[in-house]
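FORM 12-B: Structure-to-Sequence Request
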């Protein structure tokens, strides 16, 4: 969660540094936002289910990814959406292969966990890969971030890049408005150049009566 907030802050900071405004972010129109809110809610809720409902939590996570892909398809032309969708897909592949997102024992230790890994319970979509037998380990959570434990996957990094790109683009404003301003400036410059050319090439000789 902290990493997600950091990524959002980075995207907003980049947008502001490039001349964007928070007003543009407030006015931004993103399609099918209830799908994204629903996906977020399902993943958060899955974290609080007891271990006896692991199967339910797993299904909730799978459904959340379906909602993410629907949302991404509806906004496929927005900046960063491709990265976000690819990152989510990478995470879904390894989750489906292991019925949960494996977090490596090494990452758990590196992030500060000092307890018994065999008794470590991570609810929701995460499982601890104690013996290193998880499938597609390269796509699992093996990048330590800090916490007890907390780690990221390659899919997370790609997804976070997409979020940062999307936020900075929203702060910069709609592409249509920016393009319109550029087109108006170009049209004005062409008109001025044409008028100047007409004045220069006009026949200076007085007309005969």
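FORM 12-B RESPONSE
SEQUENCE OUT:
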């Amino acid at each position: 969660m902290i990493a997600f907030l950091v990524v959002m802050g980075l995207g907003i900071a980049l947008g502001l540094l490039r001349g964007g405004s928070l007003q543009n972010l407030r006015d931004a129109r993103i399609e099918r936002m209830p799908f994204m809110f629903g996906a977020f809610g399902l993943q958060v809720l899955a974290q609080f289910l007891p271990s006896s409902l692991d199967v339910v939590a797993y299904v909730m996570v799978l459904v959340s990814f379906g909602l993410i892909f629907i949302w991404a398809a509806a906004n496929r032309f927005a900046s960063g959406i491709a990265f976000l969708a690819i990152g989510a897909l990478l995470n879904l592949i390894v989750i489906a292969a292991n019925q949960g997102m494996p977090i490596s024992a090494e990452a758990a230790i590196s992030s500060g966990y000092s307890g018994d890994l065999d008794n470590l319970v991570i609810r929701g979509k995460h499982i601890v890969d104690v013996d290193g037998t998880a499938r597609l380990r390269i796509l699992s959570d093996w990048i330590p971030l800090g916490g007890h434990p907390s780690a990221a996957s390659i899919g997370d990094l790609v997804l976070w890049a997409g979020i940062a790109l999307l936020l900075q683009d929203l702060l910069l404003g709609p592409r249509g408005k920016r393009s319109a301003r550029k087109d108006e400036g170009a049209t004005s410059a062409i008109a001025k150049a044409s008028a100047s050319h007409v004045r220069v090439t006009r026949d200076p000789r007085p007309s005969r009566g």
